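Why should sequence recovery work at all? Because a backbone constrains its sequence more than one might expect. Tight turns favour small or flexible residues, buried strands favour hydrophobic ones, and helices have their own preferences. The token representation captures these environments compactly. In the example below, the structure is given first.
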């Protein structure tokens, strides 16, 4: 019963004061009125809790649902007339401990009464108390039910707001990444063991390989791992875009219609629209879900070069330029305007197009197509613009004035061309974040993991340099080489939570603080 009291170190090899023998309970479904509320209890006192709440009913068969009346402990007061009760015996449970699940009516008073009754239950084997945030998952980790990469994926699953964030989180939850990193770590440990054997026993025993030959052979293994780390790092940069959002900067000359376009896309008046040039002085940002991708949209000050540019406008332009340089996608907006002689021309600015060309993805869009009466004139204006601005692709044409909000899903009604623009944007998001079919599991690589992979790569590159240096010198520093492998393996261990105790406890705090109570 006192599994952990007898074992000062958990199965992960970590002594943790917060890991204890207590039986914990919490409301695992959302707070507030609902059809059903799920209360979860985990720990050695589950059976005692059941016996206190259902004193005369038989204990339910493990993993089978049973309908029970729940009583206030030591009384005949009914707290829930018909609860669904499930018992899962350890160790094959989500926390690795005994679990009791109570599905009760989701009224606030019922949930409160059941939780209060659990707190009054008596257990001779353990203290019964309300769980801390993330404590169920923490127990799953300490009991080897989840590795750290899976815990992070679970945290991402709970916080996923868009379809693409959900997809990435699901990939991380499979445990495949943890297995991959463990596989690499084992290979590095075996290689290090061979090198250490050489250090320890070379004076007494004959080895087939010389130290330089051994380092060269290990280098081949390390090269393979380095190649794979490169792929994982690349994948993590792509998933970071899904997690943190794709940054889009909307650039163009004053009055091109940037604010109008931004408002149409985000579906609200985020930016001020006015016929006065230079209305947008600062960067206006809004986050939204575009076809399942989280995006952060930035409307910027127009790049005005003619006329007097005041200090505030100048600062706005500087910020716009910075936004463009940081953006993943730049939308370069031009517009159809009337010239002094009454004819039409497409107004654009060179700086916008230069920044668009430098961006990872860009779109050139011409607004105010409604200002041209016929299609032939529009076509010849576009051809002239394309040649003058040396554009490789055909610009998209839109009219914010004729557009229906992008939030209206009926793509038939798209006189302003906004749905077409959204589809093109979604295509560029896909190409920014896509991974080949056989690399889909890598969608789960998190920023923390990427940093550790980069650290690991550094140690392995040092090893390869040492091996090469040894071959050139004809003399190997095997102690240094073994140390590089030890450090690299430890980086991988910290990804899955098998690292040295201090390291793991440090990352645990960061990871678990994101969890809610009941998870
Ligand atoms: N005819 C026509 N006018 C438009 C269209 N889109 C915007 N406008 C008008 O163009 C003017 C400028 O629009 P804004 O959206 O404020 O332009 P902006 O690029 O944000 O301007 P700055 O803030 O000065 O950089 C306003 O009077 C809009 O009503 C369009 O599709 N057709």
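From this structural description, the recovered sequence reads:
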């Amino acid at each position: 019963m006192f599994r952990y009291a007898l074992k000062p170190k958990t199965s992960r090899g970590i002594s943790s004061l917060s890991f204890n023998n207590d039986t914990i309970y919490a409301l695992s479904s959302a707070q507030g009125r609902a059809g059903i509320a799920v209360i979860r209890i985990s720990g050695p006192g589950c059976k005692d809790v059941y016996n206190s709440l259902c004193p005369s009913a038989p204990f339910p068969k493990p993993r089978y649902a049973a309908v029970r009346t729940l009583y206030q402990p030591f009384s005949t007061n009914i707290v829930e007339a018909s609860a669904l009760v499930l018992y899962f015996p350890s160790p094959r449970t989500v926390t690795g401990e005994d679990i009791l699940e109570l599905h009760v009516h989701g009224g606030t008073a019922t949930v409160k009464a059941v939780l209060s009754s659990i707190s009054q239950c008596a257990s001779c084997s353990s203290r019964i108390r309300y769980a801390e945030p993330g404590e169920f998952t923490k127990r799953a980790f300490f009991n080897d039910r989840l590795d750290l990469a899976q815990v992070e994926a679970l945290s991402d699953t709970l916080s996923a707001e868009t379809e693409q964030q959900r997809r990435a989180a699901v990939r991380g939850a499979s445990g495949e990444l943890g297995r991959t990193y463990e596989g690499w770590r084992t290979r590095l440990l075996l290689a290090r063991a061979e090198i250490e054997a050489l250090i320890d026993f070379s004076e007494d025993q004959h080895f087939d390989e010389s130290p330089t030959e051994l380092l060269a052979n290990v280098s081949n293994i390390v090269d393979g791992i380095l190649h794979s780390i490169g792929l994982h790092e690349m994948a993590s940069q792509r998933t970071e875009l899904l997690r943190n959002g794709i940054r889009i900067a909307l650039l163009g000359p004053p009055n091109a219609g940037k604010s109008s376009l931004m408002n149409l896309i985000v579906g609200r008046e985020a930016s001020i629209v006015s016929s006065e040039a230079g209305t947008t002085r600062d960067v206006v940002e809004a986050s939204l879900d575009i076809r399942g991708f989280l995006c952060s949209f930035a409307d910027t000050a127009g790049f005005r070069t003619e006329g007097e540019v005041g200090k505030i406008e100048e600062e706005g332009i500087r910020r716009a330029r910075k936004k463009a340089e940081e953006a993943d996608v730049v939308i370069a907006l031009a517009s159809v305007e009337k010239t002094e002689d009454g004819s039409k021309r497409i107004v654009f600015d060179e700086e916008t197009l230069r920044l668009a060309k430098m961006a990872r993805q860009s779109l050139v869009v011409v607004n105010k197509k409604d200002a041209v009466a016929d299609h032939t004139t529009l076509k010849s204006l576009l051809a002239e613009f394309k040649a003058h601005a040396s554009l490789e692709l055909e610009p998209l044409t839109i009219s914010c004035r004729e557009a229906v909000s992008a939030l209206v899903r009926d793509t038939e009604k798209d006189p302003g061309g906004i749905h077409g623009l959204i589809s093109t944007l979604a295509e560029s998001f896909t190409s920014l974040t896509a991974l080949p079919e056989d690399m889909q599991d890598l969608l789960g690589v998190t920023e923390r993991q990427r940093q550790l992979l980069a650290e690991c790569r550094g140690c392995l590159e040092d090893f390869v340099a040492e091996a090469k240096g040894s071959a050139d010198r004809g003399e190997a520093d095997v102690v240094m080489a073994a140390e590089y492998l030890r450090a690299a393996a430890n980086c991988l261990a910290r990804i899955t939570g098998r690292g040295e105790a201090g390291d793991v406890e440090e990352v645990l705090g960061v990871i678990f603080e994101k969890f809610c109570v009941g998870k």
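A few observations help interpret the result. The chain has three domains: 23-140, 157-241+446-496, 246-431.
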